[in-house]
Amino acid sequence: MLQGYVEKYKNDFEIQAIVTRIAIINAMGKKNYKVFPEVKKEMTQVDKESKEQTLQDLKYIFS
Questions:
Q1: 30: left (phi over 0), alpha (psi -120 to 50) or beta
Q2: Distance from first CA to last CA of the chain, Å, rounded?
Q3: Furthest C-alpha separation in the chain
Q4: Residue-by-residue DSSP string for the chain
Q5: Tens place of pLDDT for every residue, the chain, 63 residues?
Q6: Which of 33, 4, 30 has the alpha carbon at shortest distance from 18?
Q7: Residue 33: partners with Cβ closer than 8 Å, 6 or more residues away
Q8: Where exactly are the structural domains of the chain?
Q9: Please, are residues 26 and 33 in contact by the beta-carbon 8 Å criterion?
Q10: For residues 57 and 53, what is the distance between their CA atoms, to the nearest angstrom?
Q11: pTM (2 decimals)?
């Protein structure tokens, strides 16, 4: 568990360092680099009845 926490901490730190560098580059070069590409997700229809059934099943399992 400790190794997982250390790995997550390293990953978070690395992401923050990259984001900071990109922010500095954007500010100095007046360019607009994006850290994460914009992903457009299509809206899908949600089957309300199946979601309610899943919720009821989960409530039964965890209660």
A1: left
A2: 27
A3: 56
A4: -HHHHHHHHHHHHHHHHHHHHHHHHHHHH-----SS---PPPP----HHHHHHHHHHHHHHH-
A5: 888 888 888 888 888 888 888 777 777 776 666 666 666 666 677 778 888 888 888 888 876
A6: 33
A7: 22, 25, 26
A8: 1-34
A9: yes
A10: 6
A11: 0.42
Place of tokens 């923050």: 16
CA dist 50 → 42, 43, 56, 57, 63 (Å) = 20, 17, 10, 10, 20
| Of 43, 25, 44, 45, residue with least CA distance to 35 | 25
Position 45: which residue type? Q
